[in-house]
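Q: Two folds, back to back.
A: First:
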Amino acid sequence: MLGWVSRRFLLGPVDGPSGMSLAKFIIGMIFALAIVVAWCYLDGASPGTTMVCVIICAAIIQVGYFLLVCLMVARSVPTSAEKAREAERTPSADKAAEGEKFSAGRGIH
């Protein structure tokens, strides 16, 4: 047991067409960073330059993943609970009239 964090939260698929999970993302990121390290090594870069390239590549991957998740959330269809909350926030004309009928003159003087 992982405490309050369930295994499904850590390794479950993200809602989307690709079925991407956190484990797949981490493995893909490590693979991409290994390619950057090999490329820098074969190019003859110093260890410091290689480290800077890896950090820059990791930052670009993280920003891209964040933007992808934001896009997926923005395109998602609202759930029934979200629709119910939205309906409560924007009352229709008949609900507003009914509310006025029952709330008029009920203030404390």
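A: Second:
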Amino acid sequence: MTVERSEVLDIRASNDIVRVRQRMREWAVEAGFSLVDQTKVVTAASELARNTLEHGGGGTARVELVADGGRRGLRLTCEDTGPGIADLQLALKDGYTSRGGLGLGLGGARRLVNDFTIESRVGVGTRVTVTRWK
């Protein structure tokens, strides 16, 4: 896989979540994503950036335009050094919430993208990488 373009954005406050959403939309438009795919990738980015801030205490979002063979996509990696997730399977279940929300964040983000990976270690932090292919 080739990274054609990359940018790292800090996630330290709620307005940073908006910046991540805006950047993903801009890049999705530039890459020629349909309106439906733009909406999916932006929604996933919003959920992951919000989790990075609210559960991880802040971190970074790396936005990348990637190519693999004849296809192009957008990849987002959100990373924090927060408390980590003790039970990933439980956290990915719809309806599970650790803070009183709807419990659709991680599972919902996973359904909106083509590729989804999550790594988390208690006391170390969490990294979620998603890719939506055009």
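Q: And?
A: The first helix runs from residue 14 to 30.
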